[in-house]
Amino acid sequence: MANIRMSRINGELQKALADVINNRLNNPDLDGLIISVVDIDTTPDLSMCKVAISVLSGIETKKLAVQELNRAKNFIRHEVMRIVRLKSIPEFVFELDESYEKGQKLLNLIDKISKGD
Q1: Of 26, 41, 106, 109, whose CB count within 10 A is highest?
Q2: Number of domains comprising the chain
Q3: Up-side HSE of residue 81: CA atoms within 13 Å toward CB?
Q4: pTM value?
């Protein structure tokens, strides 16, 4: 039962975060970037929430985007409070999700191996 509740909370937070980041956050350093909220991991006591984001850009821009989101996390949290009705909204920690890049490297290795045969 608790897992169902946490997955619902994570889903609602993920939708709210995506909305806030893409529509309500006014940061010139993030203008024009496509930022996706890929995964959310919230602690059971709702005190912390790790947010994995994906940014379609170069590595330096990705790192800058994570820094800027972590810098604006209080504003983001306040805006999420307006959208999601919970007793307490967790503190957000933004991290870069590199699973897409790792997947591409793996596919390239598979292609090299299959062409070698």
Answers
A1: 41
A2: 1
A3: 12
A4: 0.83
